[in-house]
């Protein structure tokens, strides 16, 4: 069963912690069952949502939700193509002035959970702890609330009564062309593995949530394929992922910028850099990772443009999708 919690109208004692979800967790604990909270991304995020029509502003060129920036410029920015928009005073869809700023600070959410459920056993799982075996099976067995990332899919949790997704729209801010597919897969995987799912959201009437609650994969597939065709994404066009990794974050930045500048000299409709985010780094195994996503029809031509940079740098990997 999927339980959609509308944060617009629910009583929220703490930011992103509705009374509904607190009650569900308490009920779960009373039944000696565990609750799993997905914090799928470890960062701060900011967006703008209309409370009247649930509209969240998308980029005109990417069909990706835009992120609200307040410093140094007050703008809505697409983290996929860097398109910018002025922050609107009214909703572009329904013209309501009831716009709601959604700010997510993951660490604060975790702190509040520990404050509310201070008498209960709480553990946090992330890829580092699982990889280094800092969390034992006994720790997981004793835990009543588990705060985790997607990495939990690789381990077994017995007696789990509820899987809770903190804020669905947070996921849509990730600059990936197939992010809706990733979210759908993640939720459907958990639905098959465990029965009860709780999803908090400010956009309960969105088409994606309607498809999700009706469990209509055919509609989801047709909608996704249409959007990908409109924006020239796979399977209708191929993308090149250029990954750069190094122990030095500055070195990664330097290589990425040089590659981006060189490739943009050849920019056309069918040859262009479609994603580069200078702030979006991930760190794995003590190395910083960054990527450029490129739309390029001819692989040989693309490789000839950057072959010297690739041969000179063992930090560069190329992936063709």
Summarize the structure.
Keywords: ATP-binding, DNA-binding, Nucleotide-binding. The protein has ten helices and 16 strands.
Written account of the structure:
The protein is α/β, with parallel strands linked by helices and 321 residues long. It folds into 2 domains: 2-44 and 102-227, Rossmann fold (3-Layer(aba) Sandwich), CATH 3.40.50.300; 239-320, Ribosomal protein S10 (Alpha-Beta Plaits, 2-Layer Sandwich). It contains 10 helices and 16 strands. The protein has helices spanning 19-30, 106-116, 127-131, 137-142, 168-172, 179-193, 207-214, 217-230, 249-264, 299-312; strands at 2-6, 34-38, 44-50, 67-69, 75-77, 84-86, 99-105, 122-125, 145-148, 160-165, 197-201, 239-246, 271-276, 282-284, 287-296, 316-320. A 6-stranded parallel β-sheet has the order 1-11-10-2-9-8, with helices on both faces. A hairpin with a 6-residue loop joins strand 5 (75-77) and strand 6 (84-86). It is globular, with a radius of gyration of 21 Å. It starts with a strand and ends with a strand. The model has no long low-confidence stretch (mean pLDDT 78). One of its GO terms (molecular function) is DNA binding. This is PriA DNA helicase Cys-rich region (CRR) domain-containing protein. It comes from uncultured bacterium.
Characteristic terms for this protein:
Alpha-Beta Plaits; nucleotide-binding; 16 strands; DNA binding; alpha/beta; Rossmann fold; six-stranded parallel beta sheet
